[in-house]
Amino acid sequence: MPSFAFVARETGTGREVRSAVEAVTEQAAIATLLNRNLLVISIEERLSKRGRTSGGRVALHDLVIFTRQLATMIDAGLAMVQSLQALAEQTTNKVMRDVIRDVCTRVEGGDSFSEALQKHPKVFTRLYVCMVAAGEKGGLLAEILARLATYLENTARLRKKVKSAMMYPTVVTIVAILITIFLLVKVVPVFGDIFSGFGAKLPGPTLYMIKLSEFVQRYILLLLIGGGAVVYGWFYFIKTKPGREFWDRYRIRMPIFGVIAHKICLARFTRTLASLIRSGVPILEVLQIVSQTVGNVVMEKAIRSAAGDIERGEGISTAIGKHPVFPTMIVRMITAGEQTGKIDNMLERVADFLDEEIETTLSGLTSLIEPILIVFLGVVIGGMVICMFLPIFKMSEIVNPSNR
Fold first, then answer.
1. How far apart are CA 295 and CA 345, in angstroms?
2. How far apart are CA 328 and CA 53, in angstroms?
3. pLDDT band at 232 (very low <50, low <70, confident <90, very high)
């Protein structure tokens, strides 16, 4: 049975009481406390064994499989509890298994499916819960779950492509940095010792490289700690409210990468908006959810501002069109959707178009990055090698400086 932590006051003495009570639902817990002459100030369900999910998150891939299989089972006529029990038995993810079992227990106890999902915000987002709730109200749960699975599949595919495109340059850059550090710490000093025995003036680039090597050797620990501190500080900064706003504002303006980041946010906005409108969620609640899932503070503020304009009676396209972060093409498609009554279809087409553009841009970027990285490696590593071999090219002058 669920346990509820509460803060209450005794009606007779006014003394504050902090404790816990077991009850089937929150309303039952409040009724029990009132029978004890306790006036409830606040009450909150505590996640006991039944609600604990090992503190972890569920991978998007596992959530997609769960949603798709549940939609198929419900569409085939299986009961919700029976479907959840079957999915809990076959999943290999421990966290997901515990979540499904807890949801199943809550549904058996009388909660609706959406209410049970709401108890696990780390696994099921507000978007997920709202779409499920809309499906339950309209009697279209199987259809809504199928749409939700498609939405999650598109999100997972796009995320995978972005990660794949960024993996190659990231790995090559890290390897190049490690090779550079190795050359500066281990190889350059050997050449420096050899050249110092000649007693002649070395070429400028070679002297610069030897001094750089000495500096890196002397302060390598400080450099590593400083570099780690800078990276940590940057990630900490962008997690703060002003830092996130600063980063979100400028990352969509960056050349090449900014275009991709902007299109990803727009694709997420249009696809989420289309899915929620098609599911029958009220438009103001839709915009509230979309603002939280779009993934960019600048767009989030624009959506909330548009929601206020819509609440005052303006059309969606008019309200969205006031903000330059939304391209003209999206505004016109929304306008056409409002005129034809098929705004969800128009938004879905825009999302598909943006996904195709993102894929094309990523493919072109991957092709462009390869020669750029080759040039980068050639300049850095090749430059270091040339600097160290310059004295060898002038060996006669260095060994016998009197012959010059």
1. 23
2. 44
3. very high
Q: What pLDDT score was predicted for residue 395? A: 62
Q: Which two tokens stand for residue 171?
A: 């790995």
Spell out the residues 6+ positions from residue 370 whose beta carbon is closer than 8 angstroms to its own. Answer: 168
3-state secondary structure the chain: CCEEEEEEEECCCCCEEEEEEECCCHHHHHHHHHHCCEEEEEEEEECCCCCCCCCCCCCHHHHHHHHHHHHHHHHCCCCHHHHHHHHHHHCCCHHHHHHHHHHHHHHHCCCCHHHHHHCCCCCCCHHHHHHHHHHHHHCCHHHHHHHHHHHHHHHHHHHHHHHHHHHHHHHHHHHHHHHHHHHHHHHHHHHHHHHHCCCCCCCHHHHHHHHHHHHHHHHHHHHHHHHHHHHHHHHHHHHCHHHHHHHHHHHCCCCCHHHHHHHHHHHHHHHHHHHHHHCCCCHHHHHHHHHHHCCCHHHHHHHHHHHHHHHCCCCHHHHHHCCCCCCHHHHHHHHHHHHHCCHHHHHHHHHHHHHHHHHHHHHHHHHHHHHHHHHHHHHHHHHHHHHHHHHHHCHHHHHCHHHC
Contact between 88 and 96 (Cβ < 8 Å): no
Name, of 13-17, 98-102, 378-382, the range with top average pLDDT: 98-102
Considering only CA atoms, which of 329, 332, 326 is closest in space to residue 300?
Answer: 326
Query: Global pTM?
Result: 0.65
- pLDDT per position as a tens digit, 43-54: 877 654 444 444
Q: Are 109 and 119 in contact (CB under 8 A)?
A: no
Tokens 């900014």, located at residue: 258
Residues 274, 269: Cα–Cα separation, whole Å: 9
Mean pLDDT, the chain, whole residue set:
82
Residue for token digits 């966290």? 95
